[in-house]
Amino acid sequence: MLKTRNILAGLGVIAVLGASMVPMGAYAETEATTKVRVGIETAASISVDRDMVNTDIFAGSDVNSQMVANVRVSTNVDGYQLTMMGADGNTNLTIKDTNISIPTDIPAKGKSAWAYSIDGNVKQIPSQPTVIKTYDTKTSGDITSITFPVSVESKQAPGTYEGAVVFTVTASN
Fold first, then answer.
1. What is the DSSP string of 129-141?
2. Pure H helices in the chain
3. Residue 88 neighbours by CB distance under 10 Å
4. Beta carbons within 8 Å of 169's beta carbon, 6+ residues apart
């Protein structure tokens, strides 16, 4: 019986030692999964190379096309639309605190008018957002040069006439 007890004790020691030599991972294995998702938002930026374009003109002179603004657009998607409108829907150049104005129209000698032009295509200043350029690819700085021609008739009142336009860029989706 002593011999049997010694054999059983020896087997117990071997069983304990054997269990400690087997890695714990062999007994229990668990895992967890996490999805990783990154959303990249559509982005478009716009800037204008100057906050004001200005010129001096004599009443009754020919059309002056010296006022130019360069609008720079960058996008991370294929394409954008550039829109423009008179600020607050106002399309006139006006002497501050008066109703004396130069209306939007196609400028010509002997006529009071102002407009915008892209690539020589002269148009009236829109009172609502109007697409003035569509671009079909990604860009890191597409530049659109916009000229603001003006003319004044000989009896136009002297003064400083001001107005504003708003440019907006919308990235294609």
1. -EEEEEE-S-EEE
2. 2-21
3. 9
4. 44, 45, 46, 73, 75, 80, 81, 82, 83
User: What are the extents of the domains in the chain?
Assistant: 44-171
* DSSP label at residue 64: B
Q: Please state the separation of Cα 167 from the chain's center in Å.
A: 10
Position 20 confidence tier, pLDDT thresholds 50, 70, 90: low
CA distances from 50 to 1, 69, 132, 146, 165 (A): 106, 7, 19, 12, 12
CATH of domain 44-171: 2.60.40.1090
Q: For the chain, what's the residue count?
A: 173
102: pLDDT strictly greater than 50 = yes
Share of the chain above pLDDT 70, in %: 84
The two counts, helices (H) then strands (E), for the chain are: 1, 13
d(CA 80, CA 42) in angstroms, rounded, equals: 11
Q: In what order do the strands lie in the sheet with 44-48?
A: 44-48, 68-75, 139-147, 116-118, 121-123
